[in-house]
Amino acid sequence: MRQTEASERTVKHWLSGQHGPDTVYFLRLVVSSPVIRAFVLGLIEGPAATPLTDPVDRISLARAREAYVAGEAAGGRPATGAQLNDPDRVPERDPINVPDRAELNERQRWFLDRVADGRCGANEIVAAWTVSLKTARRDIAILKAADLISYIGSRRKGRYRRTPG
After folding, report:
1. Residues with Cβ < 8 Å from 135, sequence gap 6 or more?
2. Which of 39, 78, 101, 105 has the most CB atoms around it within 10 Å of its CB?
3. Which residues have C-beta within 8 Å of that of residue 68, sequence separation ≥ 6?
4. How far is the CA of 157 from the CAs of 121, 151, 153, in angstroms?
5. In terms of Cα–Cα distance, which of 101, 41, 100, 95 is closest to 68?
6. How many CB atoms lie within 10 A of CB 31?
7. Residue ranges of the chain that CATH labels 1.10.10.10
8. What residues form DSSP beta bridges with 105?
9. Distance (Å, rounded) from C-alpha 162 to C-alpha 146?
10. Whole-prediction pTM value?
11. Which of 43, 7, 38 is nearest to 25 (CA)?
């Protein structure tokens, strides 16, 4: 968990074999763990590996090695250079955790358009898209985390509004 900044639940899934680490987590593991690094390099350079004949593959391999050396030079720290104990660092605001407008799903884009017109909430998403209330709330939470909307007013009579910017 400390090496990848992944949650405890995510790491439990990796260890139980339910899922493997995503690309970013895997690369963090390769850079920070000598065991995993040796395993990956053994796969790449081992006798079972197919010889590279395509020049693009050789270029990709050279770039991967350069990235590995750069990671080694950084001492296995996260690529952003952010330290884990930095008091000014807010993981929720890391660029990797903020979805791009193009990455929003159709429901989320629909909800953003509806928020501009007036009061809209999770129940409207449920009714219009026939999804569970949990899914609707998750969509809204993603929009809030991306700072695209905010909730104003009381819990009962409040509403969402688009954040300026």
Report:
1. 125
2. 78
3. 30, 31, 37
4. 11, 11, 7
5. 41
6. 22
7. 98-162
8. none
9. 11
10. 0.41
11. 7
Domain 98-162 has CATH 3.40.50.1220: no
Residue 97, token pair as written in the block:
């955790």
Per-residue pLDDT of 105-135, as tens digits, reads 888 888 988 888 777 888 888 998 888 999 9
Please give the single-letter amino acid code of residue 68. Answer: Y
CB-based contact 144:150 (threshold 8 Å): yes
How far, in Å, CA of 82 to CA of 102, rounded?
26
Alpha-carbon gap, residue 43 to 39, rounded angstroms: 6
Place of tokens 């990709």: 60
* Distance separating alpha carbons of residues 42 and 22, to the nearest angstrom: 20
Nearest to 160 by CA among 130, 131, 117, 128: 117
Residue-averaged pLDDT of the chain = 76
Q: List, as one string, the DSSP characters of 77-112.
A: --TT---TT-TT--GGGSGGGS--GGGS-HHHHHHH
Inter-CA distances, 112 with 3, 43, 95, 101, 115, Å = 36, 46, 20, 11, 5
Backbone angles phi, psi at 75, to 5 degrees: 80, 20
Residue with tokens 């429901």: 107
